[in-house]
Design goal:
Oligomer: single chain
Strand content: under 5%
Number of strands: 0
Shape: elongated
Structural class: mainly alpha
Number of domains: 1
Distance between the termini: 56 Å
Largest sheet: none
Number of helices: 4
Helix content: over 70%
Order of helices and strands: HHHH
Radius of gyration: 17 Å
């Protein structure tokens, strides 16, 4: 049961990262991961397909009954959660800065 929850949380974090990356790019930002940045420049759909494909592949390893993989996934999820929160922080602060500068120009 814990593996299922961990896998679902991992997938949700990946989807959250895709969405926040998309919003960030539309606001003028760029992908932080240099390898993924190149893929985003080629086309965002390729980024989404690769990210979800890799996620499915990685989640597959959770089906193995190896404690090391479970704890590795736990660490990965914590890192992804931090990245997701960071993305949201950047989006909010960028929006606040843009709104503040547009109000000063009035």
């Amino acid at each position: 049961m814990n593996k299922i929850i961990l896998g679902i949380f991992f997938l949700l974090l990946q989807i959250g990262d895709i969405i926040t990356t998309y919003i960030g790019i539309k606001m003028g930002g760029e992908e932080g991961n240099p390898l993924m940045r190149k893929l985003v420049k080629i086309g965002f759909p390729y980024f989404v397909i690769l990210k979800l494909s890799l996620s499915a592949f990685v989640i597959f390893f959770l089906s193995f009954n190896i404690n090391f993989i479970f704890y590795l996934f736990l660490i990965i999820n914590i890192i992804l959660l931090i990245i997701f929160i960071w993305n949201i922080y950047i989006i909010i602060t960028t929006k606040m800065i843009k709104n503040g500068s547009s109000e000063q120009n009035k």
